[in-house]
Design brief:
Helix content: 10-25%
Strand content: over 45%
Order of helices and strands: HHEEEEEEEEEE
Strand order of the largest sheet: 1-2-3-6-7-8-9-10
CATH topology of the largest domain: Porin
CATH architecture of the largest domain: Beta Barrel
Low-confidence stretches: 1-14, 19-38
Largest sheet: 8 strands, antiparallel, barrel
Number of helices: 2
CATH class of the largest domain: Mainly Beta
Shape: elongated
Radius of gyration: 33 Å
Number of strands: 10
Distance between the termini: 62 Å
Length: 264
Amino acid sequence: MSKSEGLRLRANPIQFCSLFAALALAFVSAPSPGQTGSGDRYYGSANGLGVLGAYSWDSSHFLLGFAQNRKLVNIGVSYDRRLLRNHVVNWQYSGELMPVALESDPVGSVAYAISSNTNPPLILLTGMENAYFVGACHPAAGSGPVPNGTESYTLSCTRRWTIGEALSPIGFQWNFLTARKLQPLLDGHGGYMYSTQPIPVPEAGAFNFTFDIGAGFELFRSRSRSIRAEYRYHHISNHQTAQENPGIDNGLLQVTYCFRLGRQ
């Protein structure tokens, strides 16, 4: 064996160890198949907080409620927690708190006067009172006979805003096409609304139950920020716990700005 061949044999173990170390380092530093893209492939973190605003400009007998021409404004926060996620759906728990929940009812203001049937007629009585409606309020004027006289009236329409707060602790949201920045969604919630006075009429209750179902889209501006826009069917009812229960059905437009927290 020549001297040069011995040097090559003595060098081989060192080269082999260097190669093995390089391969081992590459193997350890490379992401595993379960990790590859799992955090980057899907949008939506484990937890999320949101700031929301919602508005409904009218109500009608959509499904369960009969009160008409009611407006609704909600301002609050939301929290969601991921339950299940894959390439098809992101299923989340969803809860909402609305410290500001405003409801508006149409109120009629009736001015009336009773005059005698003498010539010239004498004004016997005048007055003003409020009128509340399950339906919409429409301005009107007229007159009619009363004993020994005539009553004339004028009805003008105004609005009464009632402040309250609402909480929906039961809710779920389903986002679809989870690998895309723009994701269609479905959601539903259940809870209550408490007002400072009965709504939508004085004989109804100040404490009401609520539920909603909706559909819309969520646009992810980044991995940690998104905007949700949706349209909901929203129902308010006291569930026969008061003298009257006309119920309110609103079409609610809601926008939520979301902050994503925790792991992807």
